[in-house]
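User: Could you check the structure of this?
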Amino acid sequence: MPVPTRGPWSLETIHRHLDDAVIPVRLAMPTVSGFPLVLSLWFVRQGGDVWCATHQSARALRHLARDGRCGFEVARDSKPYHGVRGRAVASVHPEAGAAVLDALIARYLTDDDASLARWLRSRRAEEVAIRLRPTRLESWDYRSRMAE
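Assistant: Sure, the predicted structure tokens are below.
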């Protein structure tokens, strides 16, 4: 079933933005206290899903395992403002943690980051993948009205 979209961009343009934006996704999830937890994670899009990874001790994993409903946003903090946000159902995948971590390292790190890449790879066995299955996507794009 296709994911409903709103905003000025087509689904293809939304996917291109997610593929091209090498910035963290902001992920918001419900907690037991009722207050949302917001965190930023590296991500990679595979098909229609967004994948992240985090350490097995991260409290976000407990919240997502209890209630997978979440919101997310991929947008820069600088002008001109544009991006994608949405709702998703998250699931936790310990068996995919190492593979997703490798994809994230390839996406976000350069040769200059070799020591960080080595450190992250040293923890591969402790990484857990998070899969976001979008249920709604929304784009916004203020570039034309913010042009000088």
